[in-house]
Amino acid sequence: MRILGIETSGDTSSVALLEDNEVASEEIFASRRTICQVLVGHILSVVGTETIVAARLDGIAVSSGPASFTGLRVGVTTAKALAYSCQIPVVGVSTLAATDCI
User: Fold this and answer.
1) 80-102: b or e for each residue (b if 16 or more CB lie within 10 Å)?
2) CATH number of the domain within which 22 lies
């Protein structure tokens, strides 16, 4: 199972590709004031393909807050758009729950 994870709740964001519950690829990057410009490029870099559809994702997980409204809005909107275009499920994950797993 291939899951794309998107975390945009702070000044530093990250995207990761999980394959069979193992992190296959990950990028952590500064995103303050640039998240709209850089997020999709980092997603494409992590999935390693020119199109998201070609990545054959099974789902997308995205941080849902609490956090900065703008960062979450960009992350959730991007995740929903990708999920819609690839016809795959998207699920929101509480930022607080995700940080408890680290």
Assistant:
1) eebbeebebebebbebeeeeeee
2) 3.30.420.40
